[in-house]
Amino acid sequence: MSEENKAIARRLYNGMSSQGDWSVADELVAENFVDHNPPGPDIAPGREGFIQVFSGFRAAFPDMTMTIDDQVAEGDKVVSRLTASGTHLGDYVGMPATGKSFSIGVIDVFRIEGGMIVERWGQSDDMGMMQQLGVIPPPGE
User: Fold this and answer.
1) pTM of the full predicted structure?
2) Which CATH class is domain 2-132?
């Protein structure tokens, strides 16, 4: 089951980030999905919120990629360590495009039940991304 769950996570990352294929979320993310670390308070619940987050990223960073660096699975959980990167070419949470690129680390934990992702816990280097985009000055400045 662990290898099957890893394949589900890989398929989601590839479809949603690299290809911008939202239909993969309908296949792999449960309608009642719970994101324990949503990126903001105005995110819709469930699968709809998941698609809202990814479509917002794709609009702001149309060349976004998420590369899996490591992946471990045990029981119903899959942990993926990723590198997310892209170029800021569209509005992102109220910030106009800077034209700058970013590359950050992300760690996601998915709980999978019946072939569907039902929960997510995640951490990403949001501060590092904002610094790379020039929105927040680096430390010491």
Assistant:
1) 0.92
2) alpha beta
